[in-house]
Structure formats: structure tokens, C-alpha cells
Amino acid sequence: xxxxxxxxxKLGVVKGDSIADVSSAVRDIPHLSPAxxxxxxxxxxxxxxxxxxxxxxxxxxxxxxxxxQAPLPKPGNIVCMAVNYMENGTxxxxxxxxxFHKAPTAVLGPGGTMVLPDVPATIFEGEAELxxxxxxxxxxxxxxxxxxxxxxxxxxxxGSARGIPPTSFFAMKSxxxxxxxGPYLVTKDEIPDPHKVPVKLWNNGTLMQDFNTDDMAHxxxxxxxxxxxxxxxxxxxxxxTGTNHRGLNAFMDGDTVELECGGLGKLTFKVRxxxxxxxxxxxxxxxxxxxxxxxxxxxxxxxxxxx
Length: 307
What we know:
This protein is α+β, with helices and mostly antiparallel strands. The chain has helices spanning 34-43, 45-56, 169-173, 220-228, 284-289; strands at 2-6, 10-15, 18-21, 61-62, 68-69, 78-81, 99-102, 107-108, 113-115, 123-134, 150-162, 179-187, 198-203, 206-212, 238-240, 256-261, 266-272, 278-279, 298-300. A hairpin with a 3-residue loop joins β1 (2-6) and β2.
């Protein structure tokens, strides 16, 4: 099942090119906000799935005529796995398991605009990722049991403002609008194997990232085991599984970015930079092939290196 918020945060079930308003089926879930509603539904999904199926059976309205919102407007936790891909076999061994937090206020819905802040970043990038969504309270979960704690999946972008002094994940990752998600929250039964999902990101129509989750270093059960050994995850929390860095490229003013993880729909958003900073369209792999161990340098605008 594909769940989505649309227009003024009506809850919908997506089927093909249409979306059915199922708000009436979940009205009795205690909530003060759309975030409360979706988290409450996730925690009670076994009780409500049939209601949602019945409410959406009569059809809906065309997706083209509605405004989609973030399917998880304010998750309690956004945990992102760090350096969690083998980079198409170019890493000799997995990096030590590691993660970081992004602020829930970084969430950006489909059709939104990622705003690049006035900070001296060496480059702005967005990492294409498959993110899982937790379905029930998870603390000290064993890897063997971990998949039973997954509710579903969504497309996820990990926006980064790299090179800001002092170097920290907080300053780099938790900026407003730096966590685009959506367009849907897809229940796990629709994704037979989350470790065999194609991930594609286009920037202005050019395919830049193209990899498969089978390249993941620490698989999802291990990620859940490790994260929940540190802190509890609650229904509706996001765990982003990392990216293959080889296709990372600069995000710049006016860009249209599209991300599609197989089976999750296509997430589209814009990029705005009031400072009109520029970089070459080289990818990380392009730079590596030229013998460089750093992203492409800034070529114009505020903070560009003096020539």
C-alpha cells in the first residue's frame, strides 16, 4: 500500500495515477497534527489496513490534480547511516558502522525547494538513499528479528553543506529543507527485497547516481540492531541506509532533482541559492578518475576561491 498526504494534509491511498482520500477511516486515531496521525496509524496499522482498503476501493482523484506533502511531516528521529556502501567494489572492506542524526525540521516534501544557506560550504550535495520507516517501538533489537520492525520505505535525500568550519555532521546535515522525502510511504510488502532496489537520481534530466542497494555494506538488519543498541526508535522514525558516493554532484540554483528507488515512486524537488554559486557538473567518480580526492571546487559566486 502506498500512503501519502495531499493538499491540506488529507491522508490518501495511492493506486496507479490516482489517490483516494481515506481520512474518514483514520479519524478516530488520537492526533493533534498530521505527524501524530501518520505515526499513530503506523503503530496501529494491523487494525486499520482493512479500513484503508475499503475506504480506497471506490477510487479517487488524479494525482496530477493534487499537491503531495511529505508523507512523514515530522518524524521523531531521522538517523542516517554513514559510508554504508562498498562503492561498486572499490572499497576493500566495509567502513566501521556509523550514523548521524538529521533534524526532523529538515524534512522537505515532494515539489518543495531545497534552499542553500549563506554559509562557506565547499560544495552542496544531495545523497540518493533508500530509507526505511520503523513500524513499532524498537530497542536492543537483534538482527535476526530486525525486519519485523520495518513498516515500509520511502525515497530520501541526505542534503549536505560540506566543508563548513568547524567540521561537524550537525552543521553539514541538519539544515532546513535538507531531508527531502516521499512522495509516498510504501508498506514493506510491496518491496520484496530491500537489498535489491535500483536507486537513480537525475539532476536537470541527467542521470547522475545509478546504483543498487545490493552494494550496501552493513545490511538493514545490522543497521537496525546497531542503532537500537544506542537509542530507541519509535513508529514513524526514519532510518536512511546510505548512498553510493560515486555519482554525487553539486546542487545549484535552479536545479530540478529527481530520485526514484524502485517501487517507491519518483520524488522531485527544486534547488534555490540566492547567492547563485556555481560548480562544475563533475561527479565524485569524475574527480577520482582525474586523480583528485575531493569534490569539484566552486567556480563562481560568494565564497569562491580567489583566482
